[in-house]
Design brief:
Length: 280
């Protein structure tokens, strides 16, 4: 796809590029979602992350259609929900998502949770490989997978996941998981890159000092840190001015001392659901 000038991008193991900054629509009501996505596209975002369980794929599709932006200039991600996992149901779930989105393919299709008590994620992965070969999902990956879940998928399948989308923020840096997956060519996406507001970033020792030194907000420092770590991010917002502020983190760089200081802020502080418990 064509990456907007000045925006960072990474290369997937398929050879395709993925914009490193995206707009996520988790918990954005359908009635508001179309406006949010249109605003994001207007200010320059080209990467949209949604999911079947968000119940707003149709609104995302309306925004895509209304934007007039060529399909090949957009990167669209959606996800397979837990109750749709399995060898008999996963393909139909993507068909439904494509219909709601009003597109012929998604750029990335993820298994949303391993849901280990259901134990269908390996069977689902094999279906995703077929969907990829058919061109319905240009890249396939997973979300909220831990090392043991990845190992089972790698053993059973023939395609290495392009992405693992996980909880990641300065207080929860997921170093062991990243050290396992990234050398295999599995890129890391962060959901909740600002901690979902469940703790104050200013509580992290030294982060405010780094922000002051760069003349940026604490949130911008956190987002810039993700980018320099090679992580794809979806800072959630429904406000256009905040979208612009988030995109503006491409105009400065953290230095080596900043990166080292932020690495020391890792407190193993998970604020979301543990992957073993995501069995809804």
């Amino acid at each position: 796809m064509k990456i907007p000038t000045g925006q960072p991008a990474l290369t997937l193991n398929t050879g395709a590029q993925i914009p490193q900054m995206g707009i996520g629509v988790f918990k954005v009501e359908d009635a508001e979602c179309e406006r949010v996505v249109l605003d994001a596209l207007e200010v320059g975002y080209r990467h949209i992350d949604t999911a079947m369980i968000y119940l707003n794929e149709q609104a995302v599709g309306r925004a895509i259609a209304a934007s007039g932006i060529p399909r090949d200039e957009l990167f669209v991600t959606t996800k397979l929900w837990n109750s749709d996992q399995g060898s008999e149901t996963s393909a139909a779930a993507l068909d439904q998502s494509l219909e709601l989105l009003g597109v012929d393919y998604v750029d990335l299709y993820l298994i949303h949770w391993p849901a280990p008590l259901r134990d269908e994620y390996v069977a689902s992965w094999l279906v995703l490989e077929e969907l990829h070969h058919k061109g319905l999902a240009k890249a396939i990956g997973v979300s909220n997978f831990q090392q043991e879940h990845l190992e089972r998928v790698l053993e059973a399948g023939s395609i290495v996941p392009a992405i693992n989308q996980i909880e990641l923020h300065p207080g929860f840096q997921q170093r062991p998981l990243r050290a396992f997956q990234e050398p295999l060519g599995i890129l890391t996406e962060a959901w909740g890159p600002l901690g979902q507001g469940k703790y104050e970033l200013s509580e992290l020792p030294g982060l405010s000092d780094i922000a002051e030194a760069h003349g940026k907000s604490i949130q911008q420092i956190a987002l810039r840190w993700h980018l320099q770590e090679g992580v794809i991010i979806f800072p959630k917002t429904v406000r256009k001015e905040r979208m612009i502020e988030n995109l503006s983190v491409v105009d400065f760089e953290l230095n080596a001392d900043d990166i080292t200081a932020i690495a020391s802020m890792d407190a193993d502080r998970r604020v979301g659901t543990h992957p073993d418990d995501g069995n809804w």
